[in-house]
Input
Amino acid sequence: EVHLLESGGGLVQPGGSLRLSCAASGFTFSSHAMSWVRQAAGKGLEWVSAISGSDDRTYYTDSVKGRFTISRDNSKNTLYLQMNSLRADDTALYYCAKDFWLSIWGQGTPVTVSS
Amino acid sequence: DVVMTQSPLSLPVTLGQPASISCRSSRSLEYSDGNTYLNWFQQRPGQSPRRLIYKVSNRDSGVPDRFSGSGSGTDFTLKISRVEAEDVGIYYCMQATHWPPYTFGQGTKLEIK
Output
């Protein structure tokens, strides 16, 4: 069974950094692209970033370009999202999802940016 | 960016009755490979989103056949033939043709009357 487990969220001050992790199991991780999607409390879904499976091509939504970095360690079956220069409007539940087309989702990890 | 517009935003439905959600995109979602990358997601209260439909009309594994997707170009529809209590939640359409970024509709909240 495919399973995705996010971790690393928490409370951080504006301008701070966090690194999210997503541990994957139940499929051949290195063969699949992976994505991050976020959801602010009571709001809709916002795609954040994606990374290809084979050649590590990366993609970002404009609001996080230059601040967030997506990466993966195929030897550890783990996806990462390094978030720097965090702002209040980055506050959200962050989900990782399998594939470019978001076929399977994790349970999410909360990020709160506040002083 | 492609704008996805759903309607209605709130959908009260009687158990056993059909339901329909519309999703319109600001430009055609047909890709040069002939596919149309329009997905539907369900988010039950307190749960993570779950993909129901991919490429307009293909149901994901385990999705009941009372859910169906249709449409082309810029107009798409998710239909539930007979609403059950477990269908309560928010439904999102998402385009994956013109990306980055993928873009989602605002969400349609389905509730039982």
User: Anything to note?
Assistant: Chain A has a mean pLDDT of 97. Chain A touches chain B at residues 35, 37, 44-47, 50, 59-62, 95, 100-108 (CB under 8 Å).
